Amino acid sequence: MRIGVDIGGTKVSCALVGENKTILSKVSFDTGGGRPYTDVLHDVANSVYSVLDQTGYRLDDVEAIGLGCPGILDQQKGEVIYSNNIAWENVPLVKTLQKYVPKEIYVDNDANCAALGEYLCGASQGTSSSITVTLGTGVGGGIILGGSIHSGFNSAANAIGHMVIVSGGMPCTCGRKGCWESYASITALVRMAEEMAEQFPDSLLAEVKKRSGPFNGKNIFNAARQNDPAALKLLDKYYYFVSEGIIDLINVFQPQMIVIGGGISSEGDYLLLPIIANVKKGVYCKQVPLPQITIAKLNNDAGIIGAAYLKGYQATAVNPGI
Amino acid sequence: MRIGVDIGGTKVSCALVGENKTILSKVSFDTGGGRPYTDVLHDVANSVYSVLDQTGYRLDDVEAIGLGCPGILDQQKGEVIYSNNIAWENVPLVKTLQKYVPKEIYVDNDANCAALGEYLCGASQGTSSSITVTLGTGVGGGIILGGSIHSGFNSAANAIGHMVIVSGGMPCTCGRKGCWESYASITALVRMAEEMAEQFPDSLLAEVKKRSGPFNGKNIFNAARQNDPAALKLLDKYYYFVSEGIIDLINVFQPQMIVIGGGISSEGDYLLLPIIANVKKGVYCKQVPLPQITIAKLNNDAGIIGAAYLKGYQATAVNPGI
């Protein structure tokens, strides 16, 4: 069995994952923004022993531990190079955690871990290549090629949200203008909903805003499902932008499958079918079958399960030993 | 030794390539637009025997033959699925050529072959991953990952010119609007030069157009090298668009190297250095070293040498036998 840890901006989750890739026990704690990384990793170590205690297993029963973390990670050194979300720079994750947990420890970007989780036991199981696109606060991605995470030279691949699709367009947090993330994230959907509600003050969309507070993915989709013309128009626009990036990924990579994850992926076919229709029309090569486009299956557990299985699934991984 | 064939829209070149990847003999003929594919392949067969005759070798001395061809190819079936340039659809390349040349024959997209050539004995030799970007009539690309051509599922990867960078922008031949190709190809540079010459009728750029006929890469660059403000402004704009796509490729793939090929790559550092400066400012992850960006080394021979070495360098290749 293995242990997977998902370090997020607000929450850290740690789970013991059994041989059949099911979660046997799980604990979570608040990341606590601004705490020294040593404190956070000390809590991670306690979580590791907690998930073992809960099930009666010992550290010796564990084959490897994996940590997923937002940002750019050096898989070979086991370090966070830079993470905007947790405000970490040059943090020696593996070295620090190994002081408390003498075990093989692997690290990778959280979106890569989620993509690996989906590949191992979720939507993209059995595919030769897949890209998992996470539509959330930003647009994240993980690329699985030939059964391994594609991290690229310098470990810095998979910033798929930072392809420019509208050159000179909306300013992005990365400094460029017009990144896919600025048009296809939930943040972007909410921004466009604000504009649409203002433009159509008599719409259900405008009413939703007044009645139920700020927009989020859920209340926007609910308005559309009630056939509010403003909400439908908004989603058309949103689907267009989501599709633009997916078409780009297909034209360049041609993966066997694109998996759509993130909060709004729970909208299922309502989200998926219009996107597939757009992509079908837009791809460069219409003479070969369209890569499969589907919804993620594992939700939040994808990242934990992927992290647990980093050992053996990183193309460039070097076992850092203990 | 091996034989490489580069089938282009206007010309077909065939060469015998020695063990040290040098060209021992070479012949070319006009493709002859609109001819039946069987005629073209019959001429390819004659070329194969010509390059052997010229050097005194026999077909038995040849390990494998490779064909590079524009368009989408099915490497496993040895077929052209669709090639816009030569107006071929579902052409059984391998099966047809093997009637005349009973040998192992491999096929791939011409830009993939060029990328492989640069990897084997040109600019990207020894890299773990590289993308060769060809700035020509269109924008082509070949992706080498872990020493093999990345063809993607369905063999349709590497349409890197068809990433949208200006959503809703200039119409592209592929049907989308705003593809990178519509801003970064020589065709796009010439289009922008026409506009710039009209806007600045007293510029050297406008004079060049009057004096030396239609624009091409060379006369535009010459005007800029003479510090014509209009030409310099034009190239600034062109470099910006070229850089936008290169940044996208780096953010998504993070290859060890980006190789810039195509006619204007002969401009060398004059072209390269401003692009590198733009890319440096634009990439998502500034905490890791920038992938190397360099100029292609082999020019037109890259495609032939790459084609000759397809055997063993296609990730999904199946030996079609004879």
From TrEMBL, chains A, B:
ATP-binding as UniProt keyword: yes
Keywords, ordered alphabetically: ATP-binding, Kinase, Nucleotide-binding, Transferase
Gene Ontology biological process: glycolytic process
InterPro entries: ATPase_NBD, ROK, ROK_glcA
Molecular-function GO terms, alphabetical: ATP binding; glucokinase activity
Pfam families in UniProt: ROK (PF00480)
Entry keyword Transferase: yes
Family matches, as Gene3D superfamilies: 3.30.420.40
GO CC term (a single one): cytoplasm
Matches recorded under NCBIfam families: ROK_glcA_fam
UniProt family annotation: Belongs to the ROK (NagC/XylR) family.
Protein name (record): Glucokinase
